[in-house]
């Protein structure tokens, strides 16, 4: 789960879709109790989730945020839920993370969603909270909070800060937000590629047809793999800097090549 690249949302009040989502090829399925479920349907959705016969190793649950009137009911639901990964929207305080983990008698992971300016400002403390090993971006809510546009240029600073803060904290690289045009596979691939270049390693998805293009976007291209293999071959057994195709190869270049090959052949 911590290395997953594709995270597919499914509404918590649509148990008929749970198994289909798990069979879609996504690394992780997120059963959503927040935006995808109307207030009057949340109680039934919790019951549907508890009754579901699914592979919980590949399932996360997104609950409602700490300021929501549904948060406490979600916390009580977590006490009997089999999920091992919880997604916290609009994360702003480590105290909320502690409240979630206190609902369990076992260790669970919490993925924090950065969706507000306060959440971004508090990201370092959030990532240092026990149980938090990865952050995710919610660009629509963040743009709403900041009063800015939702386009990439307007939110580039936020994404860059998220990758930077994740690295400082020793956390896993962050997960990027959704691409809302689920009919456009090229748009999903382009967004995933841009996120990867910034240091992200995963993406939230809202439709199964986004899985294949996003999976491909997070994997190295054939030319990147060929370059990495040439670098490793040229540096093998040699100390210090060496030359390849008229360019210097030293330790940072070699480590970059190793990372590319690791992404191409994940364990």
Structure commentary:
This protein has twelve helices and ten strands. It is 44% helix and 16% strand. With 267 residues, the protein is α/β, with parallel strands linked by helices. Helix 9 (185-198) runs parallel beside helix 10 and helix 11 (222-235) packs across helix 12 (251-264). The radius of gyration is 20 Å and the shape is globular. The strands form two sheets. The chain has an eight-stranded parallel β-sheet with strand order 6-5-4-3-2-1-8-7. The chain has helices at 18-22, 42-51, 71-78, 94-102, 117-121, 123-127, 139-146, 152-169, 185-198, 211-218, 222-235, 251-264; strands at residues 6-11, 28-32, 59-62, 85-88, 109-114, 132-137, 175-176, 202-205, 242-244, 247-249. The protein folds into two domains: 6-218, TIM Barrel; 222-264, no CATH class.
Shape estimate: globular
Low-confidence stretches: none
Q: Helix/strand/pairing class, anyone?
A: alpha/beta
Report the sheet with the most strands, covering strand number, pairing sense and barrel closure.
8 strands, parallel
At the fourth level of CATH, the homologous superfamily of the largest domain is: Phosphoenolpyruvate-binding domains
Count of structural domains: 2
What order do the SSEs take from the amino end to the carboxyl end, as H and E? EHEHEHEHEHHEHHEHEHHEEH
The first-level CATH class name of the largest domain = Alpha Beta
> How much of the residues is beta strand, in percent?
15-25%
List the helices and strands and how they pair.
Blueprint: E1 6-11, H1 18-22, E2 28-32, H2 42-51, E3 59-62, H3 71-78, E4 85-88, H4 94-102, E5 109-114, H5 117-121, H6 123-127, E6 132-137, H7 139-146, H8 152-169, E7 175-176, H9 185-198, E8 202-205, H10 211-218, H11 222-235, E9 242-244, E10 247-249, H12 251-264
Parallel strand pairs: 1-2, 1-8, 2-3, 3-4, 4-5, 5-6, 7-8
Antiparallel strand pairs: 9-10
Helix pairs in contact: 9-10, 11-12
